[in-house]
């Protein structure tokens, strides 16, 4: 059964109105008709099953038939901060990271970041990344669409650590502190920030700055992971710790 995210204002007590691009998806792609059932989510934890009552050129009207569907969100809120990678790797991180349960994403720039975005390019990337997150959330039956934050500078990222219960920086030269030890201390409801470097990683000065700002430098295992692999490894560890 296909899942769609709608604005909370369009999900009322007994009915839902779907608008925008999803109308075309329902009619042209899925070829749904009156009476077919879909799942609708308001992105704030309310998931309902409904039956299509009417189809208009710019709207589909749904009658709610069941409330309180199964919640599939991770018990902890994980934000992935990814050093801005080359090519379309950020799209991969967002798509697969959403499937694995990430709560939000932000790209950042640091000393070894190669990619540079002007304001126009950043706006287009953010719009595309948010669309990818929405589609991946629908595909994986999430109740929440991860938020894509604006691209941050290194200083802005360091300052954000205070907004989380735990903040870690993946560092390939760290040997004693492991990500698993951090997870062992966490409880459901915790907010975790995981920082992954760009393709060139972090220099020692940046690691020292992060630790001074409250981050814990941790190892993600014995092998060196690609920039786009590391966040998926981290999310898999979180899922195993809290869901398996």
Keywords for this entry:
five-stranded mixed sheet, six-stranded parallel sheet, alpha/beta
Describe the structure.
This protein has 7 helices and 11 strands. The protein is of the alpha/beta class and 244 residues long. A 6-stranded parallel sheet has the order 8-7-6-10-9-11. Strands 1-3-4-5-2 form a 5-stranded mixed sheet. It is elongated. The model has no long low-confidence stretch (mean pLDDT 94).
Topology:
Blueprint: E1 3-5, E2 15-18, H1 21-29, E3 37-41, E4 47-56, E5 59-66, E6 77-83, H2 89-99, E7 104-108, H3 119-139, E8 147-148, H4 154-159, E9 166-170, H5 179-185, E10 191-196, H6 204-212, E11 216-218, H7 230-243
Helix pairs in contact: 2-3, 5-7
Number of helices: 7
SSE arrangement, N to C: EEHEEEEHEHEHEHEHEH
Q: How many distinct beta strands?
A: 11
Distance between the termini: 25 Å
Any low-confidence stretches, pLDDT <50, length ≥5? none
Q: Could you estimate the helical fraction of the residues in percent?
A: 25-40%
Spatial sequence of strands, sheet with the most strands = 8-7-6-10-9-11
Largest sheet: 6 strands, parallel
Shape: elongated
């Amino acid at each position: 059964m296909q899942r769609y995210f709608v604005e909370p204002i369009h999900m009322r007590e007994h009915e839902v109105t779907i608008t925008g691009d999803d109308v075309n998806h329902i009619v042209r792609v899925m070829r749904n008709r009156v009476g077919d059932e879909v799942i609708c989510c308001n992105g704030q934890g309310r998931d309902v099953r409904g039956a299509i009552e009417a189809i208009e050129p710019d709207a589909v009207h749904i009658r709610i038939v069941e409330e309180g569907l199964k919640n599939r969100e991770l018990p902890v809120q994980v934000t992935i901060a990814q050093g801005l990678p080359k090519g379309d790797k950020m799209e991969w991180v967002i798509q697969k990271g959403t499937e694995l349960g990430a709560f939000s994403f932000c790209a950042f720039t640091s000393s070894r970041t190669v990619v540079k975005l002007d304001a126009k390019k950043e706006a287009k990337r953010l719009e595309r990344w948010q669309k990818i997150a929405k589609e991946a959330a629908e595909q994986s039956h999430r109740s929440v669409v991860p938020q894509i934050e604006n691209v941050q500078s290194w200083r802005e990222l360091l300052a954000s650590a205070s907004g989380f219960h735990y903040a870690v920086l993946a560092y390939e030269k760290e040997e004693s502190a492991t990500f698993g030890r951090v997870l062992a201390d966490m409880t459901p409801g915790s907010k975790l920030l995981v920082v992954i470097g760009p393709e060139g990683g972090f220099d020692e000065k940046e690691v020292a700055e992060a630790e001074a700002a409250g981050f814990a430098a941790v190892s993600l295992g014995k092998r060196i992971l690609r920039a786009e692999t590391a966040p998926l490894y981290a999310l898999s560890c979180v899922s195993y710790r809290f869901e398996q």
